[in-house]
Design a protein that fits this description.
The structure is a homodimer.
Chain A (H helix, E strand, L loop, with lengths): L1 E3 L1 H6 L5 E12 L3 E5 L7 E4 L7 H5 L6 E10 L7 E12 L15 H6 L8 H23 L3 E2 L5 E2 L11 E3 L25 E3 L4 H11 L1 E9 L12 E10 L3 H22 L1 H16 L11 H10 L3 E4 H9 L2 H4 L16 H12 L3 E7 L15 E9 L3 E8 L4 H10 L8 H8 L5 E7 H9 L20
Parallel strand pairs in A: 1-2, 4-6, 7-11, 13-14
Antiparallel strand pairs in A: 2-3, 2-5, 3-4, 5-6, 8-10, 9-10, 11-12, 12-17, 14-15, 15-16, 16-17
Helix pairs in contact in A: 4-6, 4-7, 4-14, 6-8
Chain lengths: ~475, ~475
């Protein structure tokens, strides 16, 4: 007798005696068990001969119970499945008290499910989301591996806070109440675990550059942190970031890479996760119906994914984009929350979405941004006022990728750091890359949860990571 | 004219005009450039026509300089390569001052290279190690993906310190010198970022169990932390861990999985990284020659890898192992540092290595350990004194994998937690897994850097991770 997962059993064509283990999703009419084991969105229907089954046993077949079923795989009489299982033996592995089990066979609010995040993957929505998250992760690794990149684990605990991407979390082993003090009364960091003040990383880019400048093509995919007190549906205090970095690649190459990469990972899930995507597509459609017409998306989830894979990304300079936005209807009619008045303005999500959804009707790559709204390490253009930065804009979400060609000239980089008061001693190793065998190089960063939100249609970032960390919340 | 990487160029058979960019490893006789770009261990030889090249330019072709070369791919006249490049044009992209460049074309100590970790992948040894690290990472993801596992990102910042695997790092945003205090004078954690005291995770296992109990087969691969002040060649404060967790799988299934997994990832690098392994095999051989005969390994690096892939792992109970060790020669002759006297003793690396290298001469899986030397969540056997734990022992290294079947019975788990003073309130969600649809489940943990050490033959764990974090050291 062969053991199956639900996924393999639903594809099985040989009618035979089988064994399967899983959790009861529903039990209808004292007869029909919808059994799920996480291997697929779908349940396998298991039909119990209730007339010949002990009453006490039947009562224990409840939503959430773990069961082991032996039976015959047969062609299904009912709709919605081609095969089902005629149960010959059922064993309750673990009961689930229907009075107290939080995950009832009904619609729960996402907020309630966040409070029960340890059980929420027992619902179709969250199991689909997390299977997609996993598939996207694999697609990322596969893309880079297939294209000759090396995966690099950049450090999580860092002694430098030079990048200035945001507020940081301190990492310490000092006594919290009575830290050791130096003679001048400041905290004595020499007594700390690492002998100095340390924080959680905000980005692995600078370290990734060191490896690109020896191994050629590398990428990171690891957790990064922001200690900003922003309680929004788009921010996490702990999130995963993907950062490729490539030697001898300029900004145009960077755009080529990012476009190819994004298309590849989204194509991967369109190909491998059709069931989960169809389910989430329908879920989003239902959710959209509850919104006023004007707020609904023009594209369904799957249409949005194909919008990315089937369109060329339009490359537009920041300067050109500002012109378009300044002369746009929503700007003239003051429909934007932030009116674009002059060159140098930082673009908001509403502007990015306008460019993608209304103006160009395709994903957009903006490039050559004003230097003063971008990071210190970006390559200054010959005009002296713009840098070789690029952002990729997607429908519904705005910016999803941010990247740049890096400043490879030692003197220009030092000057920029001086202006921003970044001490050279702290980044001596980063400067070394410009001292010894410097070369043009580029890379980009992608917040992985933003990608998962885009690919699943989920509206709150807390619903696309297993255990979200946000201000006032580090449960589980 | 086509651009190549060194890896693709060395395999190219069409003799043609080519372009290639990389870093000069050596420049001999004013003529022969050994060029490397990280794409492979090997260099491509580029031959400069020094008689027709500007003297000033020749002087800038130094070790570490980044260059762009145009030339003809020709059959090589010299030994050691089948093709080489006749240079028609060379452009210096980035100079490298031979007076100050730290990575000279000579042997550097690993200690020196650790201080220059941002440049050490410009050496053959470290580029080989890091390419292998990357390949092993991919092999891990590929194995689990091919076998129906979902990749899960477990949280890094945790509000719980229940697992007790070791000392933890505190994560905080409170003022370090003058933390806010409550009325009773203790630190007011409600003012902290997460509203409570938080730490860096020591393991993702407990959270992985929650996903196994809904998605069936999952794994984690992420950073974990230990704040222990242990300055050894085998410990890091920050390291990466792989932790699969599977529902409905017992200890025997866990052993099958772990053996198959270890063989698979090691086979992967034997197949895909032959060049790097041969180089490291030779490096280790040279290193061993400097040791006294008695301390040398009987197996070369590649032999050790094949020792794993070609042998069945011998499964031995802890009790049986104790008997073997007690009656062994080194125990009787008091050659072990720790003499095994009775059942209940914790095994040391010397004992594990004896079992693998001398007694069984194959990888060994020890199982059914005494309950009191193992973690609270391990499944108690019917004998009431052993738990369904397993450790996999490898040659040269001892324990490399530790796993167990998990205690799935609510009452037994609660009792164990009570004995160890683990508050139920802190693990309410973990206990929920035993309340609602509990089932047999198992998993294991593998410290990734231990695997990289094993597969590369490197003796110090600081040399197998890009930027090691250890007591008093968080540089870069």
């Amino acid at each position: 007798m062969k053991s199956f997962t639900v996924a393999t059993l639903l594809k099985e064509t040989k009618l035979q005696e089988i064994q399967i283990k899983g959790w009861v999703r529903t039990f209808r009419a004292n007869r029909f068990i919808a059994l799920n084991d996480g291997s697929t969105l779908h349940n396998i229907q298991c039909v119990v001969d209730f007339e010949n089954t002990d009453e006490a046993l039947l009562k224990r077949i409840t939503t959430g119970a773990a069961v082991s079923i032996t039976g015959e795989l047969v062609e299904s009489q009912g709709k919605g499945q081609s095969v089902e299982v005629t149960v010959t033996k059922i064993e309750i592995l673990g009961d689930s008290d229907p009075e107290t089990y939080p995950i009832q066979p009904k619609k729960h609010s996402f907020e309630f499910l966040r409070e029960n995040a340890h059980l929420r993957t027992r619902t179709s929505t969250f199991s689909a989301v997390m299977r997609l998250r996993s598939a996207l992760s694999f697609a990322v690794h596969k893309y880079f591996n297939d294209n000759g990149f090396y995966y690099m684990h950049t450090p999580i605990i860092t002694g430098s806070d030079a990048e200035g991407a945001g507020e940081m979390f301190r990492v310490s082993t000092l006594d919290q109440k009575n830290p050791p003090l130096t003679e001048d009364g400041s905290v004595d960091q020499t007594k700390n675990f690492f002998g100095k003040d340390t924080n959680l990383t905000v980005s692995g880019q600078l370290e990734a550059e060191t490896y690109a400048m020896s191994l050629g093509k590398v990428y990171t995919f690891g957790p990064t942190f922001r200690a900003e007190n922003s309680n929004t549906s788009r921010h996490l205090s702990e999130f995963w970031m993907i950062e490729p970095e490539v030697a001898f690649m300029d900004l145009a190459g960077n755009m080529d890479l990012a476009e190819d990469f994004m298309k590849s990972v989204i194509s991967y899930v369109l190909e491998h996760n059709a069931d989960d995507l169809e389910f989430l597509d329908k879920r989003l459609l239902d959710e959209e119906k509850t919104k006023p017409q004007a707020e609904r998306s023009e594209l369904s989830l799957i249409e949005k994914l194909k919008f990315v894979t089937e369109n060329n990304f339009k490359r537009v300079s920041y300067t050109e984009a500002i012109d378009i936005l300044r002369n746009s209807k929503p700007n003239k009619k003051k429909k934007f929350n932030y009116i674009i008045e002059e060159w140098g303005a930082d673009l908001q999500s509403e502007h990015e979405r306008f460019l993608v959804e209304k103006h160009f009707k395709c994903p957009v790559i903006l490039f050559d941004y004003p230097a003063n709204i971008k990071a210190f390490y970006m390559r200054l253009n010959e005009d002296g006022k713009t840098v070789r930065a690029m952002d990729i804009l997607f429908p519904g979400i705005g910016e999803i990728v941010g990247g740049s060609q890096r400043e490879e000239r030692l003197d220009v980089l030092k000057e920029k750091m001086a202006v921003l008061d970044i001490p050279e001693e702290e980044l001596w190793w980063y400067l070394d890359l410009r001292k010894y065998g410097t070369a043009v190089h580029s890379g980009f960063g992608l917040g992985f949860e933003r990608l998962v939100m885009f690919a699943t249609g989920m509206g709150n970032i807390r619903d696309v990571i297993p255990y979200p960390r946000t201000p006032q919340n580090a449960e589980f």
